[in-house]
Amino acid sequence: xxxxxxxxxxxxxxxxxxxxxxxxxxxxxxxxxxxxxxxxxxxxxxxxxxxxxxxxxxxxxxxxxxxxxxxxxxxxxxxxxxxxxxxxxxxxxxxxxxxxxxxxxxxxxxxxxxxxxxxxxxxxxxxxxxxxxxxxxxxxxxxxxxxxxxxxxxxxxxxxxxxxxxxxxxxxxxxxxxxx
Length: 180
Hints:
The protein is mainly α. The chain has two domains: 12-54, no CATH class; 62-168, AhpD-like, CATH 1.20.1290. It is built from nine helices and no strands. It has helices at residues 17-30, 35-40, 46-54, 62-75, 79-91, 96-103, 111-126, 132-140, 145-168. Helix 4 packs antiparallel against helix 5, helix 4 (62-75) packs across helix 9 (145-168) and helix 7 runs antiparallel to helix 8 (132-140). The two termini are 21 Å apart. The model has no long low-confidence stretch (mean pLDDT 96).
């Protein structure tokens, strides 16, 4: 197994002026600067580019976005994102049990979320070579072509963060999600 390159978490004073402004916005809006974002600020441009992309409009609700983020982060083995999105999913009304199930790519309590979780997990596992039956199930519960496109974008966004953490092992600053 490859050695992880541990990146430090820079302070506001250690980053570029444009990243300082982003830190200030995060502090005001979220209450803190998540370590994963702070570590991205080692690059003058990466944090701003990432946040612009990840905060873009989508056809998915906040809950649906968490379904995708939890399923994909589990496939990609990202402990930071599993932990962060467990906390965010709780804020969006999911129970601990539901969150654990979403991480396995299922949502037995809701047919629409179940289809979304299954296709999101498969998308990550197969790098887009999803079984056509999962695509048909996705459409049969009410999703459409716009949602399919937005699913690929959402899975890509969380995969960027997953890959970044898996490479850098930035310190997790959320309550640690239980291992499955």
